[in-house]
From TrEMBL:
Keywords for the protein's UniProt record, in alphabetical order: Lyase, Metal-binding, Signal, Zinc
Species this chain originates from: Chryseobacterium salviniae
Catalytic activity, EC: 4.2.1.1
Domain of life of the source: Bacteria
Cofactor: Zn(2+)
Catalytic activity: hydrogencarbonate + H(+) = CO2 + H2O
Protein name: Carbonic anhydrase
Family indicated by similarity: Belongs to the beta-class carbonic anhydrase family.
Matching Pfam families: Pro_CA
InterPro entries: Carbonic_anhydrase, Carbonic_anhydrase_CS, Carbonic_anhydrase_sf
Length: 256
């Protein structure tokens, strides 16, 4: 009886050890994948300072972060006490995001970024007015941020309202509709979902109006000092699609 008891204890001890070993190996394997040069290259884990210095690298940093988010491999960078202390004397965000207020599009989460990375302006339908423009100009002039991303999203309620044009809209909501209705009308002849078509058109038009915005953004954009691009977040997949139409013929930085 005593012998059986000893054998049983030995068996359970071995099982526990083996289980711990498997867990350890899995953990090592996971660490190895994310540390590999290939994985890091595919997911654009670039130095934060390079992303701040060069908007094209900043753009890749956002694309890589979204890829990690979609694949369930978010690394949640710079989200700790150490970063709070590092930033207590100032900020240097590498991107301005002009996005929708929709609660399903939390910017730091979907781009897998952290404290001090993104300067965010959010209104429904990412409609901009004087205060939003001032915020962008502040980021560009004072914080030296060189990348502006207009981020729309599929199934946007504000855009849907501009497509449907309901009567007797209460309060200030009509401001949103008035700002988006042009994009909604312009995309109404397209095939496919009218709201999502209008979402894309709205982003493209908002990008164009920021590129034309005097006196600060327009000059910086044509001089190639800042990039202004557009993207759409898919609320079904979590994926951000940077719109090709806004990535073509970007002005190059002037030689100094
Ligand atoms: Zn929205």
């Amino acid at each position: 009886m005593k012998k059986i008891f000893i054998v049983l204890i030995a068996f359970f001890a071995f099982q526990t050890q083996a289980f711990a070993q498997v867990k350890k190996t899995e953990k090592n394997k996971k660490a190895k994948i994310t540390d590999s040069v290939k994985w890091r290259a595919q997911h654009y884990i670039v130095n934060r300072d390079s992303a701040y210095a060069d908007p094209r690298i900043g753009l890749k940093k956002l694309q890589g972060g979204n890829r990690r988010f979609v694949e369930g491999k978010s690394i949640k960078p710079r989200q700790n006490y150490e970063t709070i202390k590092k930033l207590e004397n100032g900020q240097a965000p590498f991107a301005v995001i002009v996005g929708c207020s929709d609660s399903r599009v939390p910017n730091e989460m979907i781009f897998d970024q952290g404290l001090g990375d993104l300067f965010i302006i959010r209104t429904a339908g990412q409609v901009s007015a004087a205060a939003s423009y001032g915020s962008m100009e502040f980021a560009v002039l004072k914080l030296k941020t060189k990348l502006i991303v207009v981020l729309g999203h599929t199934e946007c309620g504000a855009v849907a309202a501009a497509v449907e044009r309901p009567e007797n809209v209460p309060g200030h909501i009509v401001t949103l509709i008035n700002d988006i209705k042009h994009a909604a009308a312009k995309s109404s002849h397209l095939h496919g979902d009218p709201v999502n078509n209008a979402v894309r058109q709205n982003v493209i038009e908002q990008v164009n109006s920021l590129r034309d915005l005097d006196p600060i953004l327009h000059k910086k954009y044509v001089d190639g000092e800042i990039l202004i691009v557009g993207a759409v977040y898919d609320i079904h997949t979590g994926k951000v699609e940077f719109l090709e139409e806004t990535l073509l013929n970007l002005p190059k930085p002037k030689a100094k």
